[in-house]
Amino acid sequence: MAENLVSSWSDGKTLPESYVFPPETRPGNHVVPTSKTVPVIDLGEAKGLNRKETIQKIIQASQELGFFQVINHGVPKTVVDDARDTFKEFFELPLEEKSKLYSLDLSKKAIVYTSNVDFDKEEIHNWRDSLRLLCTPLEECIQSWPEKPTRCRKVVGEYVREVGKLGSGILELICEGLGLEPGYFANKLSEQQVMAVHHYPPCPDPSLTMGTRKHSDPGLITLLLQGNVPGLQVLKDGKWIGVEAIPHAFVINIGTQLQIISNGKLRSVEHRVVTSKNEARFSAALFIEPTRDSIVEPAKALVNANNPQLYKGVRFEHFIQMFRSTYVGKMEDVM
Ligand code: OGA
Ligand code: NI
Q1: Ligand 1, atom 10: closest residue by C-alpha
Q2: Cα(47)–Cα(41) distance, rounded to whole angstroms?
Q3: Residue 222, CB half-sphere, CA atoms under 13 Å: how many?
Q4: Is the full-model pTM beyond 0.90?
Q5: Who contacts 209 (Cβ-Cβ below 8 Å, separation ≥6)?
Q6: Which of 29, 43, 121, 231 is deepest in the core (most CB within 10 A)?
Q7: Among 223, 271, 334, which residue has the most ligand 1 atoms within 8 Å of its CB, making it the best to mutate?
Q8: pLDDT in tens, 197-234
């Protein structure tokens, strides 16, 4: 029910029991400093003489942390600003408008949900409302996207086109850095795109709840617009570190399929989102994923006597099923 959307009932004062996480998985009052540990990589450098060095930085960050940020990435500022404004406008629409899209059916091209699509099964909910948009094939999907705000389809369509291009570019750099044949990912392995736009309303007590609980992204690679309000945290050596909010930068993280293909060289790392007491936060994650029928396995070129094969090949569809069934209803939920 759309009445479950946090933004529809929260008075900003009370935190219902069903949003209170157990002490071991809640942020508590421990302050996590935002950190310079997550490398900020200037992609403009990849175009010139520093290409090799830039690729090296990407591979190193993906190996050590599974996360990096990119600036100078070629996605025009106006495209980012317009999309960000549109996401905000969408979540500010009256409940009646958002209810039209409320659904837990992942096969639909546009749904609004809250916490997780497993809302009805989970014990504790995330403090967030979300809009999920299927993006492939784009022209067809757009027809089912929200009609309001009026410019939503145009602006978000343009955003997905641009950020998708950036994703392909980064995958090319990773491909080269891993020593794989050119275009290794430029096929079914990266054909599927899904976007999740999250709205984290101001929360009465951020120490007790999570905006997004700990998880890793199951796909190939994720491009996240964190915007101006921080909240994303990454697990490094058993400790949470905050990812600095850099306006117009994208946070890139390695998904589980890329960990498999790289035979464990690149890491898909757990992350989470904390809420803020005073500010609403909007983020947008573009997930680049294999098609459901793709078989994902370690690249042959990366398996040898010194690097034995760590993972079996798995059909992405089956991987997702396993991923979901392990997580459903438990604290470590998906997405
Ligand atoms: C996700 C995610 C982070 C954020 O959607 O998988 O990790 O900042 N989002 O909302
Ligand atoms: Ni994630």
Answers
A1: 283
A2: 13
A3: 28
A4: yes
A5: 15, 19, 20, 21, 26, 126, 127, 203, 275
A6: 231
A7: 271
A8: 999 999 999 999 999 999 999 999 999 999 899 999 99
Cβ-contact 304, 233 below 8 angstroms: no
- Closest listed ligand to the CA of 216: 2
Instruction: State pLDDT tens for residues 49-90.
Output: 899 999 999 999 999 999 999 999 999 999 999 999 999 999
Neighbours of ion ligand 2 (CB under 5 A): 217
Whether the upstream peptide bond of residue 149 has omega within 30° of 0, thus cis, is yes
Domain ranges of the chain: 26-334
| C-alpha 211 – ligand 1 centre gap (Å) | 9
Mutate-to-test residue for ligand 1 from 198, 270, 327, highest number of ligand atoms within 8 A of CB: 198
CATH 2.60.120.330 fits 26-334, yes or no: yes
- Can you say how many angstroms the Cα of residue 13 is from the centroid of all Cα atoms in its chain? 29
What average pLDDT is seen over the chain? 94
Separation of CA 94 and ligand 2 centre (Å): 27
Does the C-beta of 271 come closer than 6 Å to ligand 1? yes
In this structure, of 97-101, 118-122, 162-166, the range with the lowest mean pLDDT score is 118-122
Residues whose CB falls within 8 Å of the CB of residue 140, separated by 6 or more in sequence, listed in order: none
Q: Report the C-alpha gap between 212 and 210 in whole angstroms.
A: 5
125-177 pLDDT, tens digit each:
999 999 999 999 999 999 999 999 999 999 999 999 999 999 999 999 999 99
Q: Look-up: residue for tokens 């997405």?
A: 335
Q: Could you tell me if the CB of 335 is within 6 A of ligand 1? A: yes
Amino acid at 235: L
Ligand nearest to the CA of 284: 1
Ligand 1 centre distance from Cα of residue 285 (Å): 6
Cβ–ligand 1 contact at 232 (below 6 Å)? yes
